[in-house]
Amino acid sequence: MKLFGTNGIRDIVGEGLNARFVADLVGACAAVHGARGLAVVGTDARTSSPAFGRIAAGALSMGGIDVTELGILPTPAIQYNVPLLGARFAMIITASHNPPEFNGIKGIASDGLEFTKETEARVEAAYAAQEFPRMPYNRIGTISPDPNGGARYVEGILSHVNVETIIKKRLNVILDCGNGTSAVTSTLLLQRLGSRYITLNATFDGTFPAHNSEPTEANVQGLVKTVRALGADLGVAHDGDADRAVFVDEKGNYVSGEKILALLARECIKEHGGGTVVTPVTSSDSVAEVIAPFGGKVQYTRVGSPVVTRKMKEVGGIFGGEENGGIIFAEHQMARDGAMSLAKLMDLIASSGKSLSTLLAELPPYHLVKVKVRCPVALREKVLEQVPSILDSGKDTEVTTLDGVKVRYPNGWVLVRPSGTEPIYRVFAESKDLQKAEELAKNTAKKVEEIVSGLEAHPA
Predict the structure, then answer these.
(1) Do 210 and 178 form a contact (C-beta atoms < 8 A)?
(2) CATH 3.40.120.10 fits 153-255, yes or no
(3) Which residues are catalytic?
């Protein structure tokens, strides 16, 4: 693949991603799918998204395909609407959590899942060959707006939680929309669930003035301070396209994504009396540990929600997700869904009568540390070739190369893999000993930095 990465296409606006590229790429999608039926177009709230969305709708229409425009909505809300509207596919303009100078394109199939790798390869081939449909005037598709996509999506979420129980609890929630798309839907969801809520950064602004779009602990300190100051029951922050959610407990403590993943996986497996959880090799060992007593098993995959959702469909997984706050509930839809995670967590707090901090205290004490290392895209493969040489392995270790290189030691593990969406390498390290996890991550990241520096200084 030259264009599609781990999760669609992402590039810098005005450079790799411009009007001509979007028109041609979407035109290639039209050529692959043929001139008939309906397609959906939706966008996030980045500065370039409305313009790119209109270009995408126009390219599809000129390819003889009718278009329904959903406007600015969370990625999972757009995905949810695709099968409901009977669309053959969808084009979503979004760069998810990337910095503001980025935007991107995601292709969604008729079932609401991301394009398969086979479809992406066909689109890339059509793009490379400049195969675009050329329709006469009387075969141009229609373009129609649909303002009800967000409401349909919220109704779908409500059908999978105990609404009355949550309403009776009257939870105090602080919602940080991060100037992204959750301002449209998570606010409506909290209203419907009877929450007493306060919003932060709930206006669309693709420059992300409050904090960067990725909801890391450093980026959501405003949410942490507000939860503490107001004594809220829960804080939640979404990324730019709201397919992820991270949380702050009632004590004002930021909760890492792997803990929420384990907590909600346990509850899902308990509720269903067993089942399969699908998650990437980056996920904490706590997931497997907490679901085992309830008949749950884990299926590991490569990183990326398209990989996870397709594997869930293949093996009948009932729950999936990643340690970054992207969680998938098969009963709702096969897509990472930040608002669904919020509703499910509120349901758990309300029905159990326990605070979030109390629920989290029931989990085993794992520590997952993540470090980023700068790496030019052109050097990704060369760096990966050298990674095994910097990771200690022997008879007491287990090496996995499903995605990057992962080495499991008696007291923890480390994983090194290139990002599919950014020019970086990611280093993950986990142990029940925090100091051990931090040292493993720091030392490994330093060795990766040395590889990158060496290749830059002495290119082959």
Answers:
(1) yes
(2) yes
(3) 96
